[in-house]
Amino acid sequence: MANQVKSGITNILELQPQDSTPLYRQLYERLRLAILTKQLIAGVQLPSTRSLASELGISRNTVLLAYDQLLAEGYVEGKVGSGTTVAYVLPETLLSPAKTKSNPQFEHQQYSHKRLSQRGTALVKTPLIPKPLQTSKGKQQRIFRPGISAVDAFPHELWSQLIARRARNSLQNLLTDHELAGYRPLREAIAAHIVVARGVRCTADQIIMVAGFQGGFDLAARVLLDPGDPVWMEDPGYLGARGALIGAGANLVPVPVDTEGLDIAAGIAKCPQPRLIYVTPSHQFPLGVTMSLTRRLALLEWANQNGTWILEDDYDSEYRFVGRPLTALQGIDISNCVIYFGTFSKVLFPALRLGYLVVPPDLVEAFIAVRHFIGTRVPILEQAVLADFMNEGHFNRHIRRMRSLYAQRRATLVAALERELEFEIYAPETGMHLVLWLPPGMDDKLASQQAAAVGIDAMPLSLFSITETKAGLLLGYAAVDVHEIHDGVHRLAKALRAI
Description:
The chain has 18 helices and 16 strands. It is of the alpha/beta class.
């Protein structure tokens, strides 16, 4: 019968609750290393998830996630919850040629570090947005997860009909090559929309379709940046942008954000000659502040004088609940130094990885030339269906419905939080999430872990920060109906009081 690991297992795990790496990932990595270095030998039975959670002082869900990952990758065998043992044949044994003389720990370090480029190593160390929590039935649990739209309110049947109509009537015509910049009717529809809705100054010729934010940022970085170029990055800021900049070999310069948006004076003091500036002026991520007009004009004037490009990420500014959405930064740029980025993942549904860049006229040819060589075209059928969705008026109707729905859900969440917790809340009249500021001395990573234990996806603000920042939690409300909000806030409040 397999040997049982005694309570001494805690001596080789040494979890670090203050570390930015999630606890389940720390546990998985330490168990995996213990298996590879023969500290846990083949056939040994791991403790039950409940007993190990008790010994380590962590939630059982954390242990379950770590065990599930080990099981999926082949490091352990059996059924989680009914006896889990270390596998006799490890994945490394199957994937690597046999060696006569070896040290498993040394080999693992060689594989992990020596084969990666400097940029690859930096990317591996960049924090990732945690995957959605899983329920016991494997269903994704997204209560209060920021950045998720109300998929339940999306017109699925209508979208299906548009797909079927396109596939039935014009699929053959769509199978041939199209313009590198993307499906022309969609680019025309986007131009017509953002000129009116966002005040962007452009024609369809300036629009280039990309595969979501990462595809757009990668293209812009290839055209505009050389390795080592300094780039201002909002701090705290979007992790996807940070990863894309690191992937481009840029030298990141974290610039603080205050109540008026990016602090230009602080940026100039840190780095007076950046090659590019990344900003989310209409609804800063993750803080939610809107860049003031004074700050916008100052940024444009300074960028023009210094020959600096600005990449404007306008990710969810369609959703403003009071008055009209503010004019995009690009719309008041008279020197053509702004590259504007928009996406449909937030305004429609996350799986629709369609985005677009609006580039200055004198850069269009360069962007399309580079696009030719990186092979990141987006699916033509989805572009055609989205063009129909916009040209037939469905897109604007959907946006209007979602503004009303999100405003209601936002108000419900704010009221519930004020009733359950005496914490400061920043809930701007725009976007899809708010910030719950934590009391002095409370660790937002610990608070996030406590929330996760009760099924709440509350991301810590520190996850998005390069330097120190005030502790807070991001709570998304777009994908949570009013009935779930009340129960979710009650669970969250109970978890936070336990800290």
